[in-house]
Design goal:
270 residues; 42% helix; 3-stranded antiparallel beta sheet; Helicase, Ruva Protein, domain 3; alpha/beta; 6-stranded mixed beta sheet
């Protein structure tokens, strides 16, 4: 019998070793060995995702969201617990992850495709579509090190969107890029989601993005799951929590403009 879950995360713990700022200074000037401290970013997290689920992963900065996503992607292994994605193809869209910056955009398309499990012939067949979707025709033979964060994000999204892996992990990249590309990427996301065959996990600080794209939300806080359930129920409790935590915090003009723009794009695409 086929396993009903695409992603299975069981009692996962992920730890980092950090160096105290004071000990770094001492080690630089006195040649003493820096004192390492252990930080546990994820503390016994468990959840399952079914085929076709679109799940949002929310929480404050430092809650363990990106760490969890990168562990699912296989960038590093958990210190304890297990993550099982079976034989499914998987891709992670995250700024600063996945490209060899000394290589050109074209070379990175082929390298990324091969790492995702596609053959050179399959990548070649989709190459023109990837480049066209990214809008980077004039820069595709330039080293990725010369790209802006927006260009980097466009190419990363285009590779994953066009090659269409079975599991997509998206870490904040939907909010990067110009308005035209944002609209195109949201439309493509809707297309990828609509077939109910692809499992997607989205990390985003945009409540509107999560509300419109996800049917389920997992709220991480201090490395633990605080709530896991239907989108509106979790977002309501998360907003109450944030309002109590930072009662006097006001959104910046940029944040308000970003939210309005995202809401408008999502409504137009609905």
């Amino acid at each position: 019998m086929e396993n009903e879950y695409t992603i299975q995360v069981k009692d996962v713990h992920i730890k980092y070793k950090t160096v105290q700022a004071e000990s770094i200074k001492k080690s630089l000037f006195s040649l003493r060995k820096s004192r390492m401290e252990e930080f546990e970013a994820v503390k016994g997290v468990s959840f399952n995702l079914k085929k076709g689920e679109i799940v949002g992963l929310i929480g404050r900065n430092g809650s363990g969201k990106s760490t969890m996503l990168r562990s699912i992607a296989g960038i590093f292994s958990p210190d304890e617990g297990t993550i099982d994605i079976g034989n499914h193809s998987i891709s992670l869209l995250s700024i600063g992850v996945g490209f060899q910056k000394e290589l050109t955009g074209k070379e990175n398309i082929y390298l990324s495709g091969l790492l995702l499990g596609f053959s050179e012939a399959q990548i070649k067949e989709k190459y023109d579509e990837i480049v066209k979707f990214s809008g980077l025709e004039k820069f595709i033979n330039s080293p990725v090190s010369t790209y802006s964060s927006g260009m980097y994000s466009k190419l990363a999204f285009s590779i994953t969107a066009v090659l269409e892996t079975e599991i997509m992990l998206i870490d904040e990249v939907l909010s990067v890029g110009d308005i035209a590309f944002k609209k195109k990427s949201f439309a493509k996301m809707r297309e990828l989601i609509s077939d109910n065959e692809r499992t997607v996990m989205i990390v985003s600080h945009s409540v509107e993005t999560v509300r419109k794209l996800c049917s389920r939300v997992i709220w991480l806080h201090d490395g633990l799951i605080r709530m896991d359930g239907p989108t509106e129920e979790v977002l309501e409790q998360y907003q109450i929590f944030m309002d109590e935590l930072e009662p006097n915090k006001k959104k910046t003009k940029k944040e308000k403009q970003e939210e309005k723009m995202l809401a408008t794009m999502l409504d137009e695409d609905a």
